[in-house]
Design brief:
Blueprint (H helix, E strand, L loop, with lengths): L2 E5 L9 E3 L10 E4 L2 H10 L5 E6 L4 H16 L6 E7 L5 H11 L13 E5 L5 H19 L4 E6 L6 H7 L1
Parallel strand pairs: 1-3, 1-7, 4-5, 4-7, 5-6
Antiparallel strand pairs: 2-3
Length: about 170
């Protein structure tokens, strides 16, 4: 399994760091990105297996102003084949409400409604272990079973830096 984890830093321009994840086999890598442009570059080249992007803080400012429009642009350009997006935030939103958030975020006159089919949502607290269990079940049931395969997971933390450690411990 390829685990891809992402942290956005507004103050530093980091490069991609490849490292072995604890307990994984010799062919498995954990990739940590510190720059969203790096993520976009990698997503454009990942064609071997389906990918799930888990976007922590999907209802936040950074996700709405930068990330969702960039992901939508990748979708429109055909570079998100076999990709699922799972939003995670503290707000308790229905499928319709998260779709409304996404539609309001993407400023285009001809919004492609099929993009919304890629998006699912899990609400939970960042410091609550049960929320991560709910997310894990969602990833297994909704994302992995859909294609009968364990998908690559890309975790993007679009949250305040003080939450990074809490989220990393619980993922």
């Amino acid at each position: 399994m390829l685990c891809i984890s992402v942290i956005e830093s507004r103050f530093r321009n980091y490069t991609i760091i490849l490292r072995k994840a604890q307990g994984l086999g010799t062919n498995d890598l954990n990739i940590v990105f510190y720059n969203f442009n790096s993520v976009l570059a990698i997503l454009g080249t990942m064609k071997t297996r389906p990918t799930t992007i888990v976007l922590f803080g999907i209802t936040g400012d950074l996700a709405q102003k930068k990330l969702l429009p960039a992901i939508y642009d990748l979708y429109v350009s055909g570079r998100l084949k076999d990709t699922q997006i799972v939003g995670f935030s503290r707000r308790d939103l229905s499928k319709k409400e998260i779709e409304d958030v996404v539609k309001a975020t993407i400023k285009t006159s001809n919004f492609e409604e099929k993009f919304l089919d890629l998006i699912t949502y899990v609400s939970g607290q960042f410091d609550d272990l049960e929320s991560y269990k709910k997310l894990a079940m969602h990833l297994a049931d909704v994302c992995d079973k859909k294609l009968g395969d364990c998908r690559n997971k890309l975790f993007y933390l679009s949250v305040p830096p003080k939450l990074y450690e809490i989220i990393w411990k619980n993922i």
